[in-house]
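Budget justification aside, the reviewers requested a transparent look at the raw inputs and outputs of the sequence design task funded under Objective 1. We therefore reproduce one unedited record. The lines immediately below are the structure tokens for a 440-residue chain.
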């Protein structure tokens, strides 16, 4: 049982592995997001950028399969020594096992590298013999232990897997968890949806203006990046901004807008977009994206709970911050850094943001609420409770002709995608969106 390699070992193999172990420590012990930890550690390392891919691939595979790898290691070492004594011993073991079982690295290379990593650490060095012995067993016996494991259940923390079973039923919960095990493809949204773009011969055309690439490599090196003909956006993430009718020449307030995928979508169809985000550094990402695509929007750094436009707007989009459990395929660290407490705090922020967004919507106007979460508390339950407290709003149900697949429409008329939808084409992120109309 092995995954397709995300990248093969570069010449700078030991330094890449050292970086991977450091990234894993930051994610698993400090609960820092993988993207953040990797960016910081790789930029501060001696590794050339061309070798960053292998370090990231080890860290990502270790996290994507963390539950399975941990259970496997436990069969060989029932109790791994604590970090104050053993330093990064656990991370070296997890990363080594990930290389052996999921990155197709030959046993001698992975075990030898793990030994050298242990040798280089003042604490892990005391566990070098253990690391060596365990990884040899992983190389020999790992595939048969893995074959007996329940990969879907092990790679999702219990609190998440249990709530998916409660909310979607066992069969769908398994499909969700299984979808998280595959390395996701790269999706692009074209600036002009009717662009007969032919630079990507191997791209799958998911829908007008939506391309899907496998093994895309560095985004900046892809054709068309510099001239801004497209931006990276999961197919499902491109659906909420399409729920407005014709917005050309109209004002759209885009709340919680960074890094700006939906801002670009709206600007590219001619909307006059005001994009608001609380984090200025993230707002800078929208500015970069706008400059690259030669689109424009008015950018405002503000907390959307407090900021108000000069006049209510006919169109408001709120893409609220959330636990992001719909994006675990792209962020395999999420299950190991988020907790049930994060869900509770996200919920209260979302309801405050919804109230503010409601106040910004003009009479007769449309408010679209979206989250990249699988948790109903952040999706449909937010909308149901908003509609209970705001009788001046009503659901504007989606009709099947408005989306690409009627499976995306819920019985209440909202939009909901799950990671295993269109599995044969490579799946999609889990998204929820509702369209509301202000009546009074
Ligand atoms: C899910 S992301 C938005 C993704 C974006 N709409 C897109 O399509 O690229 C959520 C964003 O909400 C922002 N945010 C969080 N709390 C906020 C608040 N109180 N007011 C405004 N923005 C906030 C975060 O900085 C983050 O950029």
């Amino acid at each position: 049982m092995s995954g397709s390699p995300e990248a093969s070992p570069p010449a700078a193999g030991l330094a890449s592995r050292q970086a991977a172990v450091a990234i894993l420590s930051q994610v698993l012990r400090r609960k820092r997001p993988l993207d953040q930890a990797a960016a910081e550690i790789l930029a501060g390392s001696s590794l050339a950028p061309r070798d960053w891919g292998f370090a990231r691939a080890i860290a990502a595979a270790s996290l994507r399969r963390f539950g399975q790898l941990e259970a496997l290691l436990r069969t060989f070492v029932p109790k791994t020594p604590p970090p104050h004594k053993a330093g990064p011993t656990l991370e070296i073991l997890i990363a080594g096992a990930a290389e052996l079982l999921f990155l197709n690295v030959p046993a001698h290379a992975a075990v030898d590298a793990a030994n050298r990593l242990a040798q280089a650490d003042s604490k892990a060095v005391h566990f070098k013999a253990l690391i060596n012995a365990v990884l040899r067993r992983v190389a020999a016996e790992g595939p048969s232990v893995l074959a007996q494991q329940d990969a879907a259940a092990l790679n999702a923390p219990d609190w998440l897997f249990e709530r998916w079973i409660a909310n979607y039923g066992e069969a769908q919960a398994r499909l969700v968890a299984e979808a998280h095990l595959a390395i996701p493809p790269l999706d692009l949204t074209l600036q002009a949806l009717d662009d007969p773009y032919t630079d990507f011969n191997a791209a799958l055309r998911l829908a007008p203006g939506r391309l899907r690439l496998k093994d895309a490599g560095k985004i900046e090196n892809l054709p068309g990046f510099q001239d801004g003909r497209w931006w990276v956006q999961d197919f499902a993430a491109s659906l909420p901004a399409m729920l407005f009718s014709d917005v050309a020449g109209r004002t759209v307030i885009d709340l919680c807008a960074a890094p700006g995928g939906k801002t670009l979508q709206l600007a590219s169809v001619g909307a006059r977009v005001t994009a608001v985000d609380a984090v200025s550094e993230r707002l800078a990402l929208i500015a970069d994206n706008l400059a690259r695509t030669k689109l424009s929007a008015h950018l405002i750094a503000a907390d959307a709970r407090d900021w108000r436009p000069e006049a209510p707007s006919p169109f408001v989009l709120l893409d609220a911050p959330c636990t992001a459990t719909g994006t675990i395929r792209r962020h395999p660290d999420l299950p190991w850094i988020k907790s049930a407490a994060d869900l509770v705090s996200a919920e209260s922020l979302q309801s405050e943001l919804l109230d503010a967004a409601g106040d910004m919507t003009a009479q007769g106007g449309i408010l679209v609420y979206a989250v990249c979460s699988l948790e109903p508390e952040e999706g449909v339950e937010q909308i149901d409770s908003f509609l209970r407290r705001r009788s001046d709003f009503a659901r504007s149900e989606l009709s099947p002709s408005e989306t690409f697949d009627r499976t995306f429409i819920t019985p209440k008329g909202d939009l909901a995608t799950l990671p295993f939808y269109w599995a044969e084409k490579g799946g999609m992120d889990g998204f929820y969106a509702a369209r509301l109309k202000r009546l009074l």
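The radius of gyration is 23 Å. Residues 191 and 230 are 5 Å apart (CA to CA). Computational costs for records of this kind are itemized in the attached budget.
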